[in-house]
Task: structure prediction
Amino acid sequence: PPSPAIRILTYNIHHGEGADGVFDLPRLAGVIASAAPDLVALQEVDEKTERSGGVSQASELGRLTGLRPVFGEAMPFQNGGYGVAVLSRWPVLSVHNRRLPQLVPDREPRTALTVTVRPTSGPGDVTFTSTHLDFGRGNSRDLQAQALNEMLIGQGGQGGNDDALSILAGDLNSGEDSEVVRI
Result:
């Protein structure tokens, strides 16, 4: 029989600020909840920064949506952290946050946050990675995509189980016909 569907959402939350300039985590949580996702990859997440009033955005979005939060810091920022996050409907079994390579040292560092979760039904454990690739010029994105392949393909997402379902989601800062997506 076919496996149950897994609903995935990726969302660049721009540190909680909407296009209208308003900081509103409950509004973002409403968008997330309306999709009824099982797994969410979040980008541009503040963790207790001054800019966000000391709020742990992943934890608050988890509380507001009823999902389990995991934050992956890419860099320290304003007395807190800044990076990516995952929200999961299912229990989180393991967490790995790895830096991605970059060609220009003064650019914002990037990371790949991989969690292994155990769905209540379905194909077994699932590895899910949230990332946000470089937006700058040059081929840092290509290098980052290659690094993601090395990290995730053939490793079962970290756990060594080649049969595990592994999902990559995030803001790739690339079009669907780009070299990054081909990689």
Summary: The CA atoms of residues 82 and 124 lie 31 Å apart. Strands lie at 8-12, 39-47, 68-77, 80-88, 92-100, 110-117, 126-132, 165-171. The chain has a mean pLDDT of 90.
